[in-house]
């Protein structure tokens, strides 16, 4: 098959991590016979510099024509003083809303090879769900196109008061909960809905929707946690979680917390999925946008030290969710794991930032090349 991929490298380390990700995809293409065509598009700070706006209309329109979108990162200090609607981050929000990708899947698991990069002690990491071994493997399903990020906001006439609104409609909650349940069905069949239902009316609506949606998934155990408690439970016993479903803002916060437990934010991929474009078509695929969860890290840009694994693993998620290429996705994940087994470490995941005896420090490019070499015979 031939697939068209919108590429938005973005700013800072974005282009540096997207390059190895596309090279890995090309290697997968060579081995499997699939063809990946890239349509490179501008969004974020670089688009502000060249067009005056973070998300030029042409970028969104062109992205909609592609089968999926792979994004590096956007933002940087030079654009931080611009007004809110002109900041590079608007490009992300505009792409998410414009492509309708309402369910953001953020897996966080601690690779055994990176045990020392996790700040938690062994006895905290061992829970009844991690089979006696220190570790955790959870998936945050974050609502991505509603809530506080997109609700009405404004200022009073004198500018001395401001408001943002958390608004959720039944359907918006239902579709993201369904994404959470579907994910749980393919995993350990536990869904924890995180909210603030002791205070917020919108959270109480989430619980009402959950009461109905959960009936469709009798095999999944549904539980509820208030977000403050969830933040605590994540560092007290992360192994208790399988899938967490939550609102846009809570998911943003909890996924950063989870990433710190997983060794490095540089390792974590994400997938943002929308509705199938045409559910009647035989080979329909949901529209998907894929990005590592790290930012543009301008302080390390251009030095060949950024970790490309989050971007490479995002490409794997794209193969799985948008193209249905499970074998190929798994091959990339196995090759990444093999690179870690071989002791290769970018600086962020090296023991205390220095290579210990069994580790070799790898640059961005070298890590990408190692993954490609290790892909051999996996497809
Ligand atoms: C993320 C980021 C974005 C968000 C920012 C850059 C707008 O933190 O993807 O988690 O808050 O969604
Ligand atoms: Mg965030």
Briefly summarize what is shown.
By secondary structure, the chain is of the alpha/beta class. Helices cover 38% and strands 19% of the residues.
List keywords for this structure.
single chain, 379 residues, alpha/beta, Isopropylmalate Dehydrogenase, 2 domains, two-stranded antiparallel ribbon, 12 helices, 14 strands, 38% helix, 19% strand, binds 3-isopropylmalic acid, binds magnesium ion
Description:
With 379 residues, this protein is α/β, with parallel strands linked by helices. The protein has two domains: 1-106 and 265-379, 3-Layer(aba) Sandwich (Isopropylmalate Dehydrogenase), CATH 3.40.718; 119-261, Isopropylmalate Dehydrogenase (3-Layer(aba) Sandwich), CATH 3.40.718. It has helices at residues 14-32, 45-51, 57-65, 89-99, 122-125, 170-185, 201-213, 227-236, 248-261, 309-321, 326-341, 364-375; strands spanning 2-10, 35-40, 68-73, 103-109, 137-143, 153-155, 162-164, 190-195, 221-226, 243-246, 271-276, 286-290, 344-345, 360-361. Strand 8 (190-195), helix 7 (201-213) and strand 9 (221-226) form a beta-alpha-beta unit. The longest helix has 19 residues, at 14-32. Mean pLDDT is 93; it is low at 277-282. Residues 89, 92, 252 line the site of 3-isopropylmalic acid.
The named CATH superfamily of the largest domain:
Isopropylmalate Dehydrogenase
CATH top level assignment of the largest domain: Alpha Beta
**Structural category:** alpha/beta
Number of strands: 14
The CATH topology assignment of the largest domain is: Isopropylmalate Dehydrogenase
**Spans of 5+ residues with little confidence (pLDDT < 50)?**
277-282
* Tally of individual domains: 2
Associated small molecules: 3-isopropylmalic acid, magnesium ion
CATH architecture term of the largest domain = 3-Layer(aba) Sandwich
Distance between the termini: 16 Å
User: Mean of residue pLDDT?
Assistant: 93
Strand order of the largest sheet: 2-1-3-12-11-4-5-10-8-9
Biggest sheet descriptor: 10 strands, mixed
